[in-house]
Design goal:
Layout lengths: L2 H11 L10 H21 L3 E2 L1 H4 L1 E7 L5 H10 L6 E7 L2 E8 L4 H15 L7 E5 L1 H29 L2 H25 L2 E2 L1 H28 L11 H11 L1 H26 L3 H33 L2 H39 L17 H8 L28 H7 L9
Parallel strand pairs: 1-6
Antiparallel strand pairs: 2-4, 2-5, 3-4
């Protein structure tokens, strides 16, 4: 099994864990800072809507040797100010796109003539497109209606399938993704086109899919949680988040690879256009959706559930049980240290030698010497019956020459 697979298995079993829910204040602070920057950018810079929304004229032509300054000068000399000049890089070489306000027929002819004279173009190679402002306003209204309908349907579905607090947490994550995606467009000045709106609705569905997967695991882990005191709701939700973490990351990476290919490879080869606008919002939104499903949706859900009285009581029981476990563990460790100290003290005491010097008297001889001397009292043969139980084998004293001569019977001589 690969290391990633091993990490995923250990996360699923709870052997290792990342405390996402416990560090929710950190994630809230990071998201709050990003949201604040996005809102300020929206209020100060605004969004760069394409001609499809605000109406106007679009001139497209190929001029490999031209520069952006030359194209801008040609349009300005025609009496049209505020034009947006974009360079499109593709297989056909450098091509250009000029967006202007709504022009009259005379102004349109003046722009075409100025481009031909300044850039030495052929009139047949200039493509002109007109978009009315009413069509752009209709697109904006339809997009807003679709967004509101999408959010309402999602909240209703999550309320029926799960519960209303999960629906609220998912709704907060979706708004979080919307604001961040639009803030990125405001900061960078990317153009907002109808393809951008389509991509925005797509990333909302993707973000919701990842959030629902996590919530389903949370519901599974918290089933029957109130009947015991094993873990609080936040702990069970954090376990569910860790169990689905590797899956969420792998899903996001697999989804981002083709989007990145469309954005960087397709955009570079085919130039700016609807495909690049769609890929850009998908790339930004998928990153934001993965972040919100992990760091925002589940912590918000845990916050809402921990406010309920039954889960507050559960958290107290879990805390009491954890403290009792710590005290018993501390007592067990102290007892183990005491027994280890006693064992080391016993091993350090001096032991009796197996042999003694001539002047030493073994401990057992202190109780039997009186019975060995002649005339001693006790059993026949100078032995006494002692009730003292000796701890080990009897230690015999080392006999010297003097004691040997004293105990030899009189009148007998040693034979030679």
């Amino acid at each position: 099994m690969s290391r990633i697979g091993q990490i995923g298995s250990r996360l699923y079993r709870g052997e290792v864990s990342v405390n996402f829910v416990g560090r929710k204040r950190t994630w809230y602070a990071i998201s709050g800072a990003i949201l604040l920057i996005s809102v300020v950018a929206l209020l100060t810079r605004g969004l760069n809507f394409s001609v499809d929304f605000k109406g106007g004229a679009v001139f497209q032509f190929t001029a490999p040797a031209a520069s952006q300054a030359q194209v801008s000068t040609a349009v300005t000399d025609a009496g049209v100010a505020g034009a947006i000049v974009q360079q499109l890089s593709g297989k056909l070489g450098n091509s250009w796109q000029v967006q202007t306000r709504t022009l009259s027929n005379t102004e349109t002819n003046n722009v075409q003539s100025s481009l031909i004279s300044h850039l030495h173009l052929n009139a047949a190679k200039i493509s002109t497109q007109f978009v009315g402002p009413s069509w752009g306003s209709q697109i904006s209204g339809k997009a807003l209606e679709a967004l509101i309908a999408f959010l309402i349907v999602i909240v209703i579905y999550l309320t029926i399938a799960f519960e209303w607090k999960m629906a609220v947490a998912a709704f907060v994550a979706l708004i979080h993704d919307l604001v961040i995606a639009t803030g990125v467009y405001a900061l960078t000045g990317f153009q907002v086109s109808p393809a951008t709106i389509i991509g925005l609705l797509t990333i909302l569905g993707y973000s919701l899919y990842d959030t629902v997967v996590v919530f389903d695991k949370v519901r599974e882990n918290t089933a029957g949680l109130l009947s015991g005191a094993r873990s609080s709701y936040s702990q069970a939700a954090n376990l569910a988040l860790n169990q689905t973490l590797v899956r969420s990351i792998n899903t996001s990476l697999i989804a981002l690879l083709p989007v990145a290919a469309i954005l960087f490879v397709g955009g570079g080869l085919l130039g700016a256009g609807e495909l690049k606008d769609l890929a850009l919002v998908l790339f930004v939104g998928m990153l934001s959706g993965t972040y919100s499903s992990i760091f925002i949706a589940t912590p918000v859900l845990a916050d809402l559930k921990e406010r309920e009285p039954q889960y507050q009581a559960l958290a107290k029981r879990v805390s009491v049980r954890a403290q009792a476990g710590k005290r018993s563990e501390a007592k067990a460790q102290s007892g183990t240290r005491s027994r280890a100290a006693e064992s080391s003290a016993a091993l350090s005491e001096p032991e009796l030698d197996d042999e003694y010097d001539g002047d030493d008297v073994p401990p057992d001889e202190l109780t039997t010497t009186g019975s060995r001397v002649p005339g001693g009292t006790g059993a026949p043969g100078g032995r006494t019956a002692s009730s003292t139980t000796r701890p080990g084998p009897r230690q015999q004293p080392r006999r010297t020459g003097t004691s040997s001569a004293r105990h030899r019977p009189a009148g007998k001589k040693k034979r030679r």
